[in-house]
Amino acid sequence: MIPVTDALSIDDDEISITYIRAGGPGGQNVNKVSSAAQLRFDVRNSPSLNGRAKERLERIAGARLTKDGVIVITANRFRTQEANRRDAVDRLVELIAAAAHQPKFRVPTKPSRAAKQKRVEEKVKRGTTKKLRSLRPNDD
Predict the structure, then answer these.
(1) Which of 90, 67, 64, 66 is nearest to 77 (CA)?
(2) pLDDT number for residue 124
(3) Of the candidates 56, 55, 54, the residue with the CA atom closest to the CA atom of residue 14
(4) Buried b (16+ CB within 10 A) or exposed e, 97-119
(5) How far apart are CA 19 and CA 37, in angstroms?
(6) pLDDT for 65-92, tens place per residue?
(7) How far is Cα 55 from Cα 18, in angstroms, rounded to an integer?
(8) How does pLDDT run along the chain (140 residues), one tens digit per residue?
(9) Residues 42 and 14 sit within 8 Å (Cβ to Cβ)
(10) Do 66 and 74 form a contact (C-beta atoms < 8 A)?
(11) Which Gene3D superfamilies does the record cross-reference, listed alphabetically (predicted)?
(12) How far is CA 116 from CA 81, 109, 111, 112, 128, in A?
């Protein structure tokens, strides 16, 4: 089990990790060893997530989501398979945690009449101050 939040965790069977060749540092070894981790997580068929979390996760995933609803995360920051595997899993956990957090419902409000009046008065006062700065006494 991979813990995401206090109330949510995903099963290890829900993710699949394959290793692919990665560019970057590694010298001659880079062309021989498959150290980059490619993680796949099927959002639509996941029993761990509820409907709203799945919708938010698909929206948040963006280009990482395939047409079939599978999130693909490629991690090649590190030289070792284990470090890249941990990095990919951590990035998936961050995505799922962000999707699991339900945003607070915001009731749109309008400024009160007094607030509008105060804003206009402050603007007039500021404009008057600026106008007084530019006025110069006449040298008659």
Answers:
(1) 90
(2) 96
(3) 54
(4) eebbeeeeeeeeeeeeeeeeeee
(5) 5
(6) 888 888 898 888 887 888 888 998 898 8
(7) 26
(8) 777 776 777 877 788 888 888 776 666 666 777 878 888 988 888 888 888 888 888 888 888 888 888 889 888 888 788 888 899 889 888 888 888 888 888 899 999 999 999 999 999 999 999 988 887 766 65
(9) yes
(10) no
(11) 3.30.160.20
(12) 60, 13, 7, 6, 18
* Residue 131, both tokens: 């106008």
Rounded CA gap, 11 and 86, in Å? 15
Question: Which has the closest alpha carbon to 50: 1, 17, 10?
Answer: 10
Compute the C-alpha angle 70/103/111, nearest 5°: 140
d(CA 109, CA 114): 14
Q: Longest Cα pair distance anywhere in the chain, in angstroms?
A: 91
Task: Find residue 73's DSSP bridge partners.
Answer: 39
User: What is the distance, to the nearest Å, from the Cα of residue 82 to the centroid of all Cα atoms in its chain?
Assistant: 24
